[in-house]
Amino acid sequence: MIIRSAGGPATSEITPRRVWLSRRQWLTGAVAAGAVGMLVPLGRQARAGTLAGATKTRYQVEDKATSLEDVTHYNNFYEFGTDKDEPARRAPGLLRPRPWTVRVEGECAAPATVDVDDLIRSSALEERIYRHRCVEGWSMVIPWVGLPLSAVLDRFQPTSRAKYVAFESLADPAQMPGTRDRTLFPWPYREGLRIDEAMHPLAFLAVGLYGETLPAQNGAPIRLVLPWKYGFKSIKSVVSIRFQEARPETFWNRLAPSEYGFYSNVNPGVDHPRWSQAKERRIGEFLRRPTLMFNGYAEEVAGLYAGMDLKRDF
Amino acid sequence: MATAVLTRWRRWDRPALHLLCALPLLILSVKGLSGDLGANPIEALVRGIGDWALRLLVVALAVTPIRRLTGLSRLAAYRRMLGLWAFAYVVLHLSAYIVLDQFFDWQAIAGEIRKHKFITAGILSVILLLPLAATSTGAMVRRLGGVRWKWLHRLVYLAVPLAGIHYLWMVKADTRQPIAYLVLILLCLGARLFHARHSRGAGLQ
């Protein structure tokens, strides 16, 4: 892993546009090959493509990245089961990440249902190494590949009435066995952000990690990454984005409003009823380490919440 | 022939049961030492031991109702041993939490006991089990006298439900499994109450 201090990559290291465009074409080709391959059972393995060469950005952290093995085998993705090893065991064989469309609608001038590969072309791919803090008290460091959420949202021209953005995951019982029982959980998984949070430069749409296409268990083909919020806000396998005036209902908030707030910003000073949030276990480490305000991103995001009582609006 | 098998079984049943009770711990230890407990081995160990603590508590609680239901009087000989194995897992579960999970951060542990009700329930359950384990020997039964000993050991009807509630309150959303345990616990408790009411003078045993 390359750890870079602020200032961005040397221009010599930035992939020329022509090269990454050809890479895009290759990627599109790989995706098409994958789609064909799906007709043949063997095609499943062949679909994992590499996204190498995504532009390295100033979003780096000093800490050692969590191993690929741990990042891809310790997942909360209840659509595939509530145990953390279930997504890795079940999702790769069940989830079909292509063809995939995302519906964008609501308070915007250009609503559309777009192919995920078209959506990915909204902006150049970047690599960002972010801290990831789960509300359960564990954390990771993950090198994501993706694009800024704002670059995607801008395309659909949200209007002044777009105060919030609501996201929905796929909830196909055929692909996601966990969604078959609708009495236990209010599927589909839903999340939401205030528009200024969604447009914040840190808000990211990941399509890969460790330079590879996003594994199914990590939310293929496209997921949100919001490093200053607890992990459950970073919704996986997104199929719908909706601009709206009213604050969206969210999955965990609906299940237990006293435990999971709408904002769910990482905050060592506000305990969850079940877990103390002052410390966290970084996966791969023995001793717990102190949790940082906004997961260490206070400098960037604290301004979004100026004047708010974060104990009340947790 | 059948008697011979039975006699032979009676010689080996207790060692076999000891081995069976030690097996989950053995498997967890081997997995732990070979790095086979996943990305969060500490959590896997604490929860794995906790699962077996609760299972064995329920098994120990079920011995008497099952003995009465089936008439297998031999079962009575396993009750203390199962109870003590359950307690051993309880102690290991708590120790793993204190040493591996919190690494002796007593301030954090005190905070968790105070603020998080599932930890409060768990600690209460351990405290209630302590005098039962301490008075499990024959000498202690004689010192206390049968009646007082029985009264003391009724604490199990508080301690085991509390252990079940500890699990229920820990679970995030899918409460089916902890509820299944609690139903089993209530069934055992119900069987005892039923027996007490229908056998005059016997009291709650």
Task: Please describe what this structure looks like.
- The complex is a heterodimer of chains A (314) and B (205).
- In chain A, strand 12 and strand 13 (289-290) form a beta hairpin.
- Chain A has helices at residues 17-37, 43-46, 68-71, 86-94, 116-120, 149-154, 195-198, 251-255, 298-301; strands spanning 55-56, 101-106, 112-115, 126-133, 138-148, 164-169, 190-194, 204-209, 212-213, 223-225, 238-244, 279-282, 289-290.
- With 314 residues, chain A is an alpha+beta fold.
- Chain A has a single domain, classed as Oxidoreductase, molybdopterin-binding domain (Sulfite Oxidase, Chain A, domain 2).
- With 205 residues, chain B is an all-alpha fold.
- Helix content of chain B is 81%, strand content 0%.
- Chain B contains nine helices and no strands.
- Chain B is globular, with a radius of gyration of 19 Å.
- Chain B starts with a helix and ends in a 7-residue tail after the last helix.
- Classes of the chains: A alpha+beta (314), B mainly alpha (205).
- The A-B interface holds A 69-70, 73-74, 78, 82, 84-85, 136, 138, 184-185, 255-256, 271, 273-276, 278-279, 281, 283-284, 286-288 and B 38-40, 42-43, 100, 102-103, 105, 108, 111-112, 115-118, 169-170, 172-174, 176.
Q: How confident is the prediction overall: mean pLDDT of chain B?
A: 92
What is the total tally of β strands of chain B? 0
The proportion of strand residues of chain A reads 15-25%
For the record, give the distance between the C-alpha atoms at the N and C termini of chain B, rounded to a whole number.
36 Å
Helix content of chain A: 10-25%
Please describe the biggest sheet of chain B, giving its number of strands, its sense, and whether it closes into a barrel: none
Fraction of residues in β-strands of chain B: under 5%
User: Unreliable segments of chain A (pLDDT under 50, ≥5 consecutive)?
Assistant: 1-12, 16-47
**Distance between termini of chain A?**
34 Å
Structural domain tally of chain A: 1
Rg value of chain B: 19 Å
Largest interface: A-B, 27 and 22 residues
Morphology call of chain B: globular
Quantity of strands of chain A, as a count: 13
Instruction: Return the structural class of chain A.
Output: alpha+beta
What's the order of the H and E elements of chain B?
HHHHHHHHH
Tally of contiguous helical segments of chain B: 9
- Count helical runs of chain A: 9
Label the overall shape of chain A.
globular
What is the multimeric organization of the chains shown?
heterodimer
